[in-house]
Amino acid sequence: NRQILLDNRPTGEPSVANFKLVETPVSALADGEVLVRNHYLSLDPYMRGRMNDSKSYAQPQPLGEVMIGGTVGEVVESRNSHFKAGDKVVGMGGWQEYQRVDANQRGVLQKVDTTHIPLSAYLGAVGMPGVTGWYGLVKIITPKAGETVVVSAASGAVGGAVGQLAKARGCRVVGIAGGPDKCGQVVSELGFDACIDYKAHPDLKSLSRALKEACPDGIDGYFENVGGMILDAVMLRCNAFSRIAFCGMISGYNGDPIPMTNPSLILVNRMKLEGFIVSEHMGVWPEALKELGALVATGQLKYRETVAEGIASAPEAFLGLLKGKNFGKQLVKLV
Ligand code: NDP
């Protein structure tokens, strides 16, 4: 069983030297346990935070242990009456090829139906990132038809879902993403009304002017994935009683300070700003997954995947994700 461990913690930007590839034998199963062959590993920005030893909403990743991560795979051996060989499952298998799990622990392993939805989608549009987009949009932004919703990291796993869910609710949807290729495809493939290339607008004035053009009626809802100058520019265009869902602040994940330069706008515009962690809202997952699953199964919700090959490629692919080398959900194919 090849595994990737966190070997040491980064200062600032992480590197492949923070990780270590090891091979360990898979030991025999105990009663109640299941052996899963992981087919795909999900790489997610939150893993960057876990690499630090600082206080956050989640515990740091312990050194010398298998990196945490969501996985989908197939049961290959079972000593648990609820699972049999061949079952397709989603779980938190970590950065490794096989996982041995005590399947009696509630929620540790979920069976999934791959008749109409590909297995990998349970790590993206019909999984944690999709529910994240759904929660921030539906529960915090609460969009009404005719409103304008903006989303940053628009081509990503979360952002792509947000935009399409907002379109389905009758909103004008404007994305923000890095580079002309990503922006073009956010419009042509994901169906956004417009997408602004933030790299072509490197200062506040230029970005806020681009937002004014793309959002002639101002901004009613903003789904925040990035922070920093992009947040400042959006806030300048926000309408009275607009809502911002604080989902991620990836531009600050390596420790750079990302101040908000104009907080008085919150008062002037009577805005609502709310942060959330999707795993603290398990109650909405069934409702969110029902909508996301139906939209994906009927082809109405489009999603992209960037797939790295083999467990050894995971560190490099993870560093790429933090730099925007992915388009859509970043996965590692293990089988
Ligand atoms: P993505 O697939 O969107 O990948 C990350 C993207 O962020 C990159 O592709 C890149 O796109 C963009 N990015 C990276 N650095 C910067 C930067 N300095 N400035 C602007 N954009 C940057 O990841 P996810 O969809 O998985 O996650 C999106 C966000 O949601 C993250 O912030 C993540 O932490 C957050 N999240 C929060 C959760 C919660 O419960 N609150 C749960 C899940 C995710 P580009 O090329 O366009 O720059």
Main features:
single chain, 335 residues, alpha/beta, Quinone Oxidoreductase, Chain A, domain 1, Rossmann fold, 2 domains, seven-stranded mixed sheet, 15 strands, 26% helix, globular, binds NADPH dihydro-nicotinamide-adenine-dinucleotide phosphate, oxidoreductase, GroES-like_sf, MDR_fam, NAD(P)-bd_dom_sf
Bound molecules: NADPH dihydro-nicotinamide-adenine-dinucleotide phosphate
- How many domains is the backbone divided into? 2
Biggest sheet details: 7 strands, mixed
Fraction of helical residues:
25-40%
Briefly note the structural class of the backbone: alpha/beta
String of helices and strands = EEEHEEEEHEHEHEHEHEHEHEHE
CATH homology-level superfamily of the largest domain: Medium-chain alcohol dehydrogenases, catalytic domain
CATH domain class name of the largest domain: Alpha Beta
Taken as a percent bin, the fraction of beta residues is 25-35%
Distance N to C terminus: 12 Å
CATH fold-level assignment of the largest domain: Quinone Oxidoreductase, Chain A, domain 1
Please give the number of β-strands: 15
**What does the average pLDDT come to?**
97
Which blocks of ≥5 consecutive residues have pLDDT under 50?
none
CATH architecture of the largest domain: Alpha-Beta Complex
Q: Sum up the overall morphology in one term.
A: globular
What is the alpha-carbon Rg in Å? Answer: 20 Å
Keywords: Oxidoreductase
Domain Enoyl reductase (ER): 14-332
Protein name: NADP-dependent oxidoreductase
Organism: Ideonella azotifigens
Tell me the layout of helices and strands.
Blueprint: E1 2-6, E2 19-23, E3 33-42, H1 46-50, E4 71-78, E5 88-91, E6 98-102, E7 109-111, H2 128-141, E8 148-152, H3 157-168, E9 172-177, H4 180-188, E10 194-197, H5 204-214, E11 219-224, H6 229-236, E12 238-246, H7 264-268, E13 272-275, H8 285-297, E14 305-309, H9 314-322, E15 329-333
Parallel strand pairs: 8-9, 8-11, 9-10, 11-12, 12-13, 14-15
Antiparallel strand pairs: 1-2, 3-4, 3-6, 3-15, 4-5, 5-7
Helix pairs in contact: 2-3, 2-8, 5-6
The chain binds NADPH dihydro-nicotinamide-adenine-dinucleotide phosphate.
Protein name: NADP-dependent oxidoreductase
Organism: Ideonella azotifigens
Pfam families: ADH_N_2, ADH_zinc_N
